[in-house]
C-alpha cells in the first residue's frame, strides 16, 4: 500500500510539474513583416502605444517589398504587408493566401518623381527610370505610361530597390524613379519634381495584410488580437493627429509636419470600412475590383493568368 500511495504522489507531482511547464512555456510571437511605408505605420504605432507586446507580435521591417515578400515565401514571417497585386502573385505561385485586413488605399501616395527639367510623363521618352522589380513598381509605371500615351518600349528601366533608387537619383544615374513615402518627401525636398501619382489611377493600389490559410486556421486568436490593435492605432491616428505624427515622424526620420503630410495621399480604413471592403457581397467589396486588377496585370504580362478571388479575402478578423 505504501508503494502504491508513493507512486500516486510521485505521478501527481510529475503531472503537476508538467502542466506548470506547459503553462509557463514561452509562446512563439506572431512574426509580421513590412517594408517602409506610411500605410504600415499603424503596426508600429500599436506596438509603441502598448496595444500588443513583443511576446505576442514581433515586427520586422525590411528595406524593400522584394525582401519582405521573399521572407514570407521562405516562411521567415507569418504575416506580410503588401499590395494586392503582390498578393495575387503569391496566389499564382500556389501559396494559399488570406487577405484579412486592408491597410490603406493609395490616392496619391505612389508617385513618379523626376530630375529638374523633366516636367511630364511624356518627357520620359528615351530616359532611364529606376523601378523596383515588383509587380507594384511595374504596374505603376505601365499605367502612368498608358495614361499619358507613351509606349513602354520608349523608356529604359533600371531595376533597383526603392532605397537604391533614391541614391541613384541623387547621383543622377537615373532620370526618374517610381517611389513612395517617406522617400517621396525626402526627394522632393532635395529638388525632385512629382510628375505622376496614384491620384490618376484611383482605387487601383491597395495595401493589405496577408497570411497563409494554414496559419489563420491554427492562430485565429493571434490574428484577431493583432487586427484589433491595428484598427485601434488607426483610430488613434484619426483622433490624435499631432501626437501620432510626432511618433511616426520620429520612427521614419521625418519631421512631424512631413509625417503628417505623408498620409495625405492615403486612406486608412477603420473597422467598419474594413468589414465592408473584405465582405463578400458588399457594394464596396474589393473582390470585384481585384478581379479587374488581375485582368489588367495579365494584360501587361505581370501575371500568367487571372487569379480566382473566391477564397482570397476573409472578413473574419475585422467583423
Feature tags:
D-Maltodextrin-Binding Protein, domain 2; 18% strand; 319 residues; 45% helix; alpha/beta; single chain; six-stranded mixed sheet
What does this structure look like?
- The chain has 319 residues and is an alpha/beta fold.
- Helices cover 45% and strands 18% of the residues.
- The strands form two sheets. Strands 2-1-3-10-4-11 form a six-stranded mixed β-sheet, with helices on both faces.
- The N and C termini lie far apart (59 Å).
- Mean pLDDT is 88; it is low at 4-11 and 13-26.
CATH superfamily of the largest domain: Periplasmic binding protein-like II
- What fraction strand? 15-25%
Helix content: 40-55%
**What is the mean predicted local confidence, pLDDT?**
88
Total number of strands: 11
Poorly predicted runs are 4-11, 13-26
Molecular shape: globular
CATH fold call of the largest domain: D-Maltodextrin-Binding Protein, domain 2
What is the subunit organization of this protein?
single chain
**Class by helix and strand content?**
alpha/beta
The count of domains is 2
- Give the strand order, joined by hyphens, for the main sheet: 2-1-3-10-4-11
Count of DSSP helices? 13
- CATH architectural designation of the largest domain: 3-Layer(aba) Sandwich
By CATH reckoning, the class of the largest domain would read Alpha Beta
CA-based gyration radius = 23 Å
Largest sheet composition: 6 strands, mixed
The helix/strand order is HEHEHEHEEEHEHEHEEHHHHEHH
Span between termini: 59 Å
Amino acid at each position: 500500500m505504501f508503494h502504491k500511495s508513493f507512486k500516486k504522489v510521485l505521478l501527481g507531482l510529475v503531472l503537476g510539474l508538467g502542466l506548470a511547464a506547459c503553462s509557463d512555456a514561452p509562446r512563439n510571437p506572431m512574426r509580421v513583416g513590412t517594408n517602409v511605408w506610411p500605410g504600415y505605420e499603424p503596426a508600429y504605432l500599436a506596438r509603441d502605444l502598448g496595444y500588443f507586446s513583443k511576446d505576442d507580435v514581433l515586427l520586422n521591417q525590411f528595406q524593400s517589398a522584394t525582401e519582405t515578400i521573399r521572407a514570407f515565401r521562405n516562411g521567415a514571417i507569418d504575416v506580410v504587408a503588401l499590395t494586392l497585386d503582390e498578393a495575387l502573385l503569391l496566389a499564382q505561385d500556389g501559396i494559399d493566401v488570406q487577405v484579412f485586413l486592408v491597410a490603406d488605399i493609395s490616392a496619391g501616395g505612389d508617385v513618379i518623381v523626376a530630375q529638374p527639367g523633366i516636367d511630364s510623363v511624356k518627357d520620359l521618352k528615351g530616359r532611364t527610370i529606376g523601378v523596383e522589380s515588383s509587380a507594384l513598381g511595374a504596374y505603376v509605371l505601365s499605367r502612368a505610361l498608358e495614361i499619358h500615351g507613351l509606349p513602354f518600349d520608349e523608356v529604359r528601366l533600371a531595376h533597383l530597390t526603392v532605397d537604391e533608387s533614391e541614391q541613384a537619383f541623387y547621383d543622377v544615374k537615373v532620370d526618374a524613379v517610381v517611389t513612395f513615402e517617406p522617400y517621396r518627401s525626402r526627394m522632393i525636398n532635395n529638388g525632385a519634381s512629382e510628375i505622376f501619382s496614384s491620384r490618376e489611377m484611383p482605387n487601383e493600389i491597395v495595401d493589405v495584410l496577408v497570411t497563409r490559410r494554414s496559419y489563420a486556421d491554427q492562430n485565429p486568436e493571434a490574428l484577431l488580437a493583432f487586427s484589433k490593435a491595428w484598427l485601434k492605432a488607426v483610430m488613434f491616428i484619426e483622433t490624435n493627429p499631432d501626437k501620432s505624427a510626432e511618433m511616426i515622424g520620429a520612427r521614419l526620420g521625418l519631421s512631424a509636419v512631413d509625417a503628417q503630410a505623408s498620409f495625405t495621399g492615403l486612406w486608412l480604413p477603420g473597422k467598419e470600412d474594413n468589414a465592408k471592403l473584405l465582405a463578400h457581397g458588399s457594394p464596396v467589396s474589393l473582390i470585384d475590383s481585384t478581379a479587374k486588377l488581375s485582368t489588367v496585370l495579365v494584360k501587361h504580362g505581370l501575371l500568367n493568368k487571372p487569379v480566382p478571388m473566391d477564397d482570397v479575402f476573409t472578413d473574419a478578423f475585422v467583423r
